[in-house]
Specification:
The protein is rod-shaped. The chain has about 160 residues and is mainly α. It has one domain. About 60% of the residues lie in helices and about 0% in strands. It contains 4 helices and no strands.
Length: about 160
């Protein structure tokens, strides 16, 4: 019963829908017996008490429905915002994986060149392939080294 008010406090920054004005105070009807201690309330007083209780309950239910609707709208807005953020981050992660693959390929080529497996730029026998790769043009990968990084990339996704 009281738990409904706790989540509302954490969402106070959200756009508020103005609730209907509180019901006008009606004739004060207490749930306490009349001043004459030995008498029970008359049938008219009992009906008035029940009607007043029903009106207050209806007003409280309306306030609760309004708060629940606001809370639901806030949740839907949060879901929408977070879904957009998820898409942005997934795109960024994909781009970083792709860049990581390219960088791994560059490192593999440079380490092979240092080991003498891939000809150096000054060597005329195979320098054109290496020049294409270093200038950013795509060419078929040489050896199994560059394929390993891509295989691992697919496994991690």
């Amino acid at each position: 019963m009281f738990g409904h008010h706790e989540p509302e406090a954490s969402h106070s920054h959200a756009q508020q829908v103005t609730p209907p004005p509180p019901p006008q105070p009606q004739s004060p009807v207490d749930n306490t017996p009349s001043p004459e201690a030995g008498q029970e309330p008359s049938e008219g007083d009992t009906v008035a008490i029940v009607e007043d209780k029903r009106r207050r309950n209806t007003a409280a239910s309306a306030r609760f429905r309004i708060k629940k609707k606001q809370w639901t709208l806030n949740l839907e807005r949060t879901i929408s915002d977070l879904s957009g953020r998820v898409q942005e981050l997934e795109g960024e992660a994909s781009e970083l994986r792709r860049e990581n693959g390219w960088l791994k390929e560059i490192v593999m080529l440079k380490s092979k060149r240092l080991q003498g497996v891939v000809p150096d730029l000054g060597d005329t026998s195979g320098g054109s392939t290496l020049q294409n790769e270093e200038s950013g043009q795509q060419s078929p990968p040489s050896g199994g080294g560059s394929g390993e990084g891509k295989g691992k990339e697919k496994q991690s996704t």
